[in-house]
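hi!! sorry for the late reply, been swamped w classes. u asked for the two structures so here they r. pasted raw, havent cleaned anything up. first the sequence of the first protein and right below it the tokens
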Amino acid sequence: MARYLGPNCKLCRREGTKLFLKGERCASQRCSFERRGYAPGQHGQSMTRKRTEYELQLREKQKAKRMYGVLERQFRNYFRKAERLKGIAGENLLRLLECRLDNLIYRLGFAPSRKAARQLVRHRHFTVNEQIVDIPSFQVSPGDMIKVREKSRQLRIIHDALTKMGKGRELPWLTVDKVNLTGSLLEMPGREDIPTPVEERLIVELYSR
């Protein structure tokens, strides 16, 4: 399975915003974006030119893609699927990304980051409706129950993530039981309930060129 193996902090600096790819570290003073909030590379500090319309669209797509940990071909396939669904393509795209299993595990507070959630899924620590699922991109449907497997209930990374999960991570379309280590998708989220700082309109414009 293809995946990005380069430095995560450079991605945040390239997009000019925190993508929260390293969990708790991103909220601390150790975050390299706090110390070097300019684009990486030789000319990173001198990039003050006005951005073109195409560049704005491209950067918004790259930001969303990197935030959810999806590579280019997979992201394009999500967009094509979103176009075929009823409703607004940009909002459909975000819903599809939000309903990925690795993203929901992060949103429920079982992992400190989407990257960590992806690894936990690949290592078979979670079930969906009592069935083991080891595919991070698995699409969860409303009513599905996500549960930490019995043999994985003592994992420190899960309990630490739940302990540090603030109210900002609690969403109205999700429910989580911290005692039984279960969570569920109550309904498909509306755009106003998705806390992702992305202008999906620009992504639609980019793919519509």
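now the second protein. again sequence first, tokens right under
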Amino acid sequence: MDSNRKTAIIVGVLFIIATVAPIVSIVFIESVYDSEYLTAVSANENQLLIGVLLLLTMTTAIVSIPIMMFPVLKKHNETLALGYVGARIFEGFFSTVNIINILSLLSLSREFINAGTPVASHFQTSGALLLSQFDWCSILLDFPFTLSVLVLNYLLYKSRLIPRWLSILGLIGGALWLITTPFRMFGLFPPSLEILAFVIFIQEMIFAAWLIIKGFNSPEITS
């Protein structure tokens, strides 16, 4: 098995981890969204920590993917390959900040419980700030994420390392979700339209399966 084949399999597995882990983590961190989160978070501490571990796994996968793919992509356009690495590392940064926000909320919840029946205003203000940071980081990480989707699939389209129809699907999915990001920042995006993210989800799962089963096509070196 040559190095490109091994890389394809590893990258395929990492894409699955990076996509599935955050979806599963929602089940474990749902107490963050509870109306009584100051008590709910502490009461579900073990579940929350499992969710954090899943998010850490996702973040590790996010950062590992471009590092693994760089030797393959740089043969076609080293500048864009470096851009892909940078975008995903930036995405990983926002993901890490989100993990810190969740753990900080857990610490705040513990303090609230240990204080007995305190005046809740201080804790509510701090908790609201952490939840707000969590929501903002969740939106902001979509900028480098969608940028990385567009850069990667453009490179894959030009190099024909995977079928072009699959690269085009990725470009469409990335563009659709990138357009929604500013609207979500201003609260103008109905939750029902989050189904648009399904295009990227489907494309990345097909892409991952393709890499694991088929690997990269014979490269066509481009400038």
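hope this helps!! also noticed smth abt the second:
The chain has a mean pLDDT of 89.
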